């Protein structure tokens, strides 16, 4: 049953509800991977916890849940299925973007049939074009990596603005987020991956669709902190920079996967030996003790980094503080670095889990593939993020506006 605004708490209550669903998520993790999408019953159950309302304005029945609570909730999901976590944080996170749109667009999103439990997907991969026409734009083209598109009600399509005369201007084109009902988009069945396979991140296609002007948000305007929403403009919750908030959401997935690997390793070492050695139980071997301790230290370090960046984002939003380019680059670098720490921890225990862990019904191998996929995400990639931070530390241009 989908909870109403009065029955789902904004804080720890959501985390507890999500935690209660962990057995269901775990039972369906292999199925999600095989079917390349999260099963409908899992999506419905998670919707009932209120997770989709965490970034929806309170005036619509949303919760504006503290960022640290969101991180805890997503990490609980990732501890059982990385794909399910990525879909859930995607839908919940894009609702944050939707809350930056003009108020008229927010009425479209949050007062429809699904109310504040609406699922909104979106990407920042420009593959479509937007041509102005009377009263709005006509959008045409594809949007790849549309996570959770099968269960989304809306999609924010990234489109490059094309002048009415079709002539390209100097420099890169202006990018727009155009909000389109999923019912108007075609889904291509092209998501077939080794990691985060259950996210259903297919390509969606718009074919010359009209989009009214109030359902369009210029990306550069959003990155600069200028939002057209009048109702949310002075709300500290919506002063958190979107890209830095995404760093925190991504951290939750990494932490959940790292904790899952440690839990799986901790169970396996008590019921198996080390083949071709005298150890009849793996937990008796000194090498196992060293592996477990080192992996856990990496995860603990990642948790500390996550807590710091989340606290900084929340504190600055509450106090109205601004960010220097160096601070923005550091937080993005921290997101990539803590993800790498979790990947190293997973790699360490996965390499010690034995050949039997290669069976597809053993979570360890899926965890390893999922966190590898997470590290390949363009915004999370550890090496890219370190380079950006290093450029800023060296006093040169960061080489990207996405900070």
Descriptive account of the structure:
By secondary structure, this protein is α+β, with helices and mostly antiparallel strands. The protein is built from 13 helices and 8 strands. Strands 1, 2, 3, 4, 5, 6, 7 and 8 form an 8-stranded mixed beta sheet that branches. Helix 5 (67-78) packs antiparallel against helix 6 (82-98).
List the helices and strands and how they pair.
Elements: H1 12-20, H2 22-27, H3 29-35, H4 40-47, H5 67-78, H6 82-98, H7 103-110, E1 120-122, E2 128-133, E3 136-146, E4 154-161, E5 175-181, E6 186-188, E7 202-212, E8 216-218, H8 219-223, H9 242-268, H10 286-319, H11 325-350, H12 363-375, H13 382-393
Parallel strand pairs: 1-4, 2-4
Antiparallel strand pairs: 2-3, 3-7, 4-5, 5-8, 6-7
Helix pairs in contact: 1-5, 5-6, 5-9, 6-9, 9-10, 9-11, 9-12, 10-11, 11-12, 11-13
Radius of gyration (Å):
22 Å
CATH superfamily of the largest domain: Butyryl-CoA Dehydrogenase, subunit A, domain 3
**How many angstroms separate the termini?**
39 Å
The low-pLDDT segments are 1-8
- Determine and state the CATH class of the largest domain: Mainly Alpha
Q: Count the domains.
A: 3
Query: Which structural class matches the secondary elements?
Result: alpha+beta
* Helical amount: 40-55%
For the sheet with most strands, the description reads:
8 strands, mixed
Q: Spell out the helices and strands N to C.
A: HHHHHHHEEEEEEEEHHHHHH
Please state the second-level CATH architecture of the largest domain.
Up-down Bundle
CATH third-level topology of the largest domain: Butyryl-CoA Dehydrogenase, subunit A, domain 3
Give the total of beta strands: 8
Average of pLDDT:
93
């Amino acid at each position: 049953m989908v909870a109403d605004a009065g029955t789902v708490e904004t804080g720890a209550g959501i985390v507890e509800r999500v935690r209660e669903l962990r057995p269901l998520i775990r039972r369906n993790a292999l199925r999600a991977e095989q079917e390349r999408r999260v099963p409908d019953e899992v999506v419905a159950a998670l919707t009932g916890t209120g997770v989709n309302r965490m970034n929806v304005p309170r005036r619509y029945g949303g919760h504006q849940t503290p960022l640290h609570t969101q991180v805890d909730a997503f990490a609980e999901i990732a501890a059982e299925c990385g794909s399910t976590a990525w879909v859930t944080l995607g839908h919940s996170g894009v609702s944050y973007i939707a809350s930056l749109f003009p108020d008229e667009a927010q009425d479209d999103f949050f007062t429809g049939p699904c109310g504040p439990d609406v699922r909104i997907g979106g990407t920042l991969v420009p593959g479509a074009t937007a041509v102005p026409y009377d009263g709005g734009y006509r959008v045409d083209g594809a949007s790849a990596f549309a996570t959770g598109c099968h269960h989304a009600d809306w999609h924010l399509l990234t489109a490059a603005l094309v002048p009415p005369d079709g002539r390209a201007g100097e420099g890169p084109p202006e990018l727009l987020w155009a909000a389109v009902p999923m019912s108007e988009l075609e889904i291509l069945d092209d998501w077939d991956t080794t990691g985060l396979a259950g996210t259903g991140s297919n390509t969606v296609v718009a074919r010359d669709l009209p989009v009214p002007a109030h359902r369009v948000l210029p990306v550069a305007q959003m990155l600069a902190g200028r939002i057209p929403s009048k109702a949310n403009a002075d709300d500290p919750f919506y002063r958190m920079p979107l890209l830095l908030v995404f760093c925190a959401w991504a951290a939750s997935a990494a932490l959940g996967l790292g904790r899952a690997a440690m839990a799986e390793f901790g169970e396996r070492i008590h019921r198996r030996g080390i083949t071709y050695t005298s150890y009849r139980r793996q937990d008796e071997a000194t090498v196992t003790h060293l592996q477990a301790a080192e992996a856990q230290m990496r995860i603990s370090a990642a948790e500390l980094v996550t807590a710091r960046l989340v606290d900084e984002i929340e504190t600055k939003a509450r106090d109205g503080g601004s960010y220097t380019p160096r601070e923005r680059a550091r937080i993005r670098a921290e997101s990539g670095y803590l993800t790498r720490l979790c990947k190293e921890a997973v790699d360490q225990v996965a390499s010690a889990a034995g050949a039997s862990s290669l069976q597809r019904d053993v979570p360890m191998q899926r965890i390893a593939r999922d966190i590898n996929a997470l590290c390949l995400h363009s915004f999370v990639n550890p090496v890219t993020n370190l380079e950006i931070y290093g450029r800023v530390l060296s006093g040169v241009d960061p080489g990207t506006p996405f900070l």
